[in-house]
Design brief:
This protein is of the alpha/beta class. It is built from eleven helices and ten strands. It has two domains: about 140 residues, 3-Layer(aba) Sandwich (Rossmann fold), CATH 3.40.50; about 110 residues, Rossmann fold (3-Layer(aba) Sandwich), CATH 3.40.50.1860. Helices cover about 45% and strands about 15% of the residues. The strands form two sheets. A six-stranded parallel beta sheet has the order 4-3-1-2-9-10, with helices on both faces. Helix 2 packs across helix 3. It is globular and about 55 Å long. Bound molecules: D-glutamic acid. D-glutamic acid binds next to helix 3.
């Protein structure tokens, strides 16, 4: 059976996972990509684990029905809530993402690292386990960032409101000595220029998107699933909310004016 055909399915609560999709496109130029933004249900960050699990299952079923050969959960919150059940339910490679605490612990000079993420990610058992592995080496500060996902969903990447929220969240980490900030939600790389501007040049930011894309390559390689095609792959986008609202934002953040986009059904 040919395991190399079909797109790589990628999903998030909204547009945040496009930060991962960009890196997958860079890492794997000839793969076809199918992206789902669950825009009718964004944000996931303050929803229950059961709710996120239900959404993640429905979207994974949709991706597989559309021929996906592998699934990337391009969302820290959904990974924390649902990756375990997705992996037990679906027989395809499933790659997730979690806050990059390890690289941050290796990089810090002050011994204090700050994690920006959603409340759901930070409250999860998965994150507690991850954090406890580094607690004896460094101080891990966490900052839930209520409202930031919504700002990115509106493509407000540098508005006064977004700046106000970020200043509040960053000050709480920087004042306590953090010199490395982890972008623990896939929406936040879109805010990296503003975060850098507010935090200043002495602070390092960790964006794990490229590492996730490399992991996708490794998994597909290992399973003999890398595309055999030599041309440039296609991208297709689906939203569960309004197409009229979703299309221009996705197109803007993806950086292509003419995208193929439809509804999640
Ligand atoms: N991009 C999702 C993440 O990485 C955002 C979750 C949300 O919708 O709150 O956590």
């Amino acid at each position: 059976m040919d395991k190399t055909g079909g797109p790589i399915g990628v999903f998030d609560s909204g547009v945040g996972g496009l930060s991962i999709l960009k890196e997958i496109r860079r890492e794997l130029p000839s793969e076809d990509l199918l992206y789902v933004a669950d825009s009718a249900h964004v944000p996931y960050g303050e929803k229950s684990v059961e709710y996120i699990e239900r959404r993640s299952t429905a979207i994974t079923e949709f991706l597989l029905d559309n021929g996906a050969k592998a699934v990337v959960v391009a969302c820290n919150t959904a990974t924390a809530a649902a990756i375990h059940s997705l992996r037990s339910r679906f027989p395809v490679p499933i790659v997730g993402i979690e806050p990059a605490v390890k690289p941050a612990a290796e990089m810090t000079r002050s011994g204090v690292v700050g994690i920006l993420a959603t409340s759901g990610t930070l409250a999860s058992d998965r994150f507690s386990t991850l954090r406890s592995r580094f607690d004896s080496e460094v101080e891990v500060l966490v900052q839930p960032c209520t409202g930031l996902v919504e700002q990115v969903e509106r493509a407000e990447l540098s508005s006064d409101a977004t700046r106000g929220l970020l200043e509040k969240y960053l000050v709480s980490l920087l004042d306590r000595g953090a010199d490395v900030i982890v972008l623990g939600c896939t929406h936040y790389p879109f805010l990296a220029p503003l975060i850098r501007e507010i935090a200043g040049p002495a602070i390092s930011l960790i964006d794990p998107s490229a590492a996730v894309a490399r992991e996708v390559r490794r998994r597909l390689e290992k399973e003999g699933m890398l595309s055999a095609a030599s041309g440039i792959g296609t991208e297709r986008f689906c939203v569960s909310g309004s197409l009229d609202e979703g299309a221009p934002i996705i197109s803007r953040l993806w950086g292509v004016s003419d995208i193929e986009i439809g509804m999640l059904r």
